[in-house]
């Protein structure tokens, strides 16, 4: 009897948690279809804010910058982070305490400190050499620096879960280093690399603080645009942008779930 009551209470708590998490998102999505320019009251159903959004060149440019930045930085971060993760695994018997601290530092450091440090660094480089003026290039470098630690830890955890004798078996079969990488390491790391890429992509799309300090006048991303628009008040157009982002994330999640079920 007590066990049944505990399960009911746990189910109620689970549903309350879901409501607490997703009710704000539902409110944003509903008011994106509001006919009047306010989020305080409902004025009827309308698609005017989506039409206005699709005809806004600034928003389209910000979305393009966001996706381009996320894709480029994620690819670079996965390549560099995978090599670092592999190096950590190969030399795990050594004392790598300082290196581990350096890898964890960007993860635990506040974004505003990281962003200011990046900005100061790029300003000094630009003053001395004329290179790395604020823009998409500086944003890519800044994003890669905070994405690499996540990738390295994901790849390292994947290697740790492997049987160490598999590497010896590959050598015993006279596989060259390139053959071991192409036919053993990369196929084994494929799930970890995909997870690291999507995590890096999400971190890049979601980032505001570091992007704000390293962006140029012509490289504003979607979070920077939303921040500037919110300063003038939250309009249904902002809700429409948020709704499209929520729908995109939900679509990716559903596709990933269907793909995993099909593989299973």
UniProtKB/TrEMBL annotation:
The chain crosses the membrane at residues 12-36, 58-89, 96-116, 136-160, 181-202, 240-259. It is a multi-pass membrane protein. Pfam families: BPD_transp_1. One of its GO terms (biological process) is transmembrane transport. Residues 63-259 form the ABC transmembrane type-1 domain. It is found in: Cell membrane. Coiled coil: none annotated. Keywords: Cell membrane, Membrane, Transmembrane, Transmembrane helix, Transport. PROSITE patterns: ABC_TM1 (PS50928). InterPro entries: Bact_Polyamine_Transport, MetI-like, MetI-like_sf. Gene3D superfamilies: MetI-like. GO terms for cellular component: plasma membrane. Belongs to the binding-protein-dependent transport system permease family. CysTW subfamily. This is ABC-type spermidine/putrescine transport system permease subunit II.
